[in-house]
Amino acid sequence: MHELSIAESLMSLIVENARKSGARSVIKVSIVVGNLSGIVGDSLKFCFDEAKRSTVAKDAELVVDEVSATAYCVKCETQFAVDQYVFNCPDCGEVVIPSGGQELYLKDMEVE
Known about the structure:
By secondary structure, the chain is of the alpha+beta class. The protein has a domain at 3-68 and 101-111: hypothetical protein PF0899 fold (2-Layer Sandwich), CATH 3.30.2320. It has helices at residues 3-21, 41-51; strands at residues 26-34, 61-67, 69-73, 78-82, 97-100, 104-111. The strands form 2 sheets. The chain has a 3-stranded mixed β-sheet, with helices on one face. Strands 4-3-5 form a 3-stranded antiparallel β-sheet, with no helix packed on it. Strand 3 and strand 4 (78-82) form a beta hairpin. The radius of gyration is 17 Å and the shape is elongated.
């Protein structure tokens, strides 16, 4: 379960940013996760709840914003939404380049 190591890294980043801003506590954390990132949202939330214990973020809510996958066809020069791991252009059938949906980043934090 790589979500645990991701949650621990995320918590280190949260604690560091809270310390730098002088925050007493973290209320809410928002992250962006692409649906092709390989991260399972529910597993990440569970691991986040474990990682936040005894930290400044112990009462923080985790909000996961999922980003849909997109791909770009070099031949047609079009970008379109992808809902599966097979990346073929719907217009010409060529193999396409993933252009979105692999994200994972801390979007923002609400602190006191």
